[in-house]
Amino acid sequence: MDLAVVVLGALTVAMGLFAIKFPMRIRSFVSPSRWTDDPETAETYQRIWAVAVGTTIVALGLVTVGIGLTTG
């Protein structure tokens, strides 16, 4: 078991879960013009993108944890 890789993977999972739980607190994936023209749609797109990116980050973190648990 490689503890450093497991910790790195766990932190990555935590980052992804944060993006899913708080989609409005991460980087904006929607253009500024969309926010001014139609804020409701922009918020919906932001939430969709945040969940998609957060889920990908969580998956990569879980793979990293798995690699850390099986190596060393």
Task: Give structural notes.
This protein is mostly helical and 72 residues long. The protein has one domain. It is built from three helices and no strands. The longest helix is centred in the C-terminal third of the chain and has 32 residues. The protein is rod-shaped, with a radius of gyration of 16 Å. The N and C termini lie close together (5 Å).
State the shape: rod-shaped
Structural domain tally: 1
The radius of gyration computed from the alpha-carbon positions, rounded to a whole number of angstroms, is 16 Å
| N- and C-termini, Cα separation | 5 Å
Percent of residues in β-strands: under 5%
The helix-and-strand class reads mainly alpha
Name the assembly state: single chain
Q: What percentage of residues falls in helices of 4 or more residues?
A: over 70%
H/I helix tally: 3
Sequence-ordered SSE layout with sheet pairings:
Blueprint: H1 3-21, H2 32-37, H3 39-70
